Amino acid sequence: METDKNKEKENNLDTKKETKSVTKDNVETGSTAQTKNEKFVEWSPENEMIMVEWCDVAQCYKWLNTRAHNKYKMMNAWFTIPAITLSTISGTASFAQASLPVSMQGYAPMAIGTLNILIGILTTVQQYLKISELNEAHRVSAISWDKFARNIRIELSKAPSERMDAGPFIKICRQEFDRLMETSPSVNEKVVQEFFQAFNGKEGSVERKRFEALKKPDICNIIISANEYRHPWYLDESTNTGTDNIVFVEPENEEFIRQKELELLEKENTLRNKENAEKDKQNRRENAQKMFQKGFLELSKKLKLQSKKLEDYIQAFQGMYGRKPIVDEIERHAEPLIESGEIERETLVKFLATYKSEGVLDLV
């Protein structure tokens, strides 16, 4: 009897060890009855494009929230530091007002009250604008978006065989993306404009090509049709939907599609050439306008300098003879200057017309 009982105990211990080892293996491998029933999803170019888009959007939001955090940090300092300074001055003045001269003690309460009012205004405005809350919210959001983008970037840098299963990974990323979109604060439009100015780059540069290839969020005033995200299953020659009598085929042959692509390329080239022609025309117009303005300024400057020489002669003549010179005297003085090229004859004619119109000849 005792031997039978001992055998039963040993058998029970063995079964417990086996169940523990099985559960331990299930925990380590992550295999459960539920996970076995789930469909295995392999990594495909379409799945990777989804991850690339989310990573690009996350990097954009990280930059936007970081820049917004810096702006709100500076704004918070502009409100907080004056409030601290005025509070210190007000507290010190409250204790020191008894040591003031008797004639100044009557003004001390008014000065302290004014400081307290200013402190209250600064604090109330700061709380109303929620500067501290937005500053912290943008900081946390920037860190979260950076972490989200970094996880995707690390996973995409691995070989497909070394990655986590595509199905669970996409599900986790989608939940995290939705959570960040719900909790992230809105970004100011000026920050979005700074984003374009910082990364847009010059036309034809490497920075411009990278910026155009970057998938940007909707807040950057960019909306893309959902047709670009469709799976190209309809481009296959024949695709079964699970029934034998329904078969989807291409509406046209490859030659027709190739012809349409060529037509689209021709239209794009035509539009591009038209835009370039408009830009060239606009540039020529602007250059002509600049040249005209430059020539006009040079001509007016030259005319002013030549007229200045004639005016200096008139002043010297008047100081010597006590009267202004007549036209003939001015012309005799200007002839050598015209021959030497210091004054043009057109300048002399215009100057004498103005000189006559001022009624100077009435003095002679």
UniProtKB/TrEMBL annotation:
Name recorded for this polypeptide: SMODS and SLOG-associating 2TM effector domain-containing protein
Keywords from the UniProt entry: Coiled coil, Membrane, Transmembrane, Transmembrane helix
Organism: viral metagenome
Positions of region (Disordered): 1-39
Membrane-spanning residues: 77-100, 106-125
Coiled-coil parts of chain: 257-294
Biased composition (Basic and acidic residues): 1-27
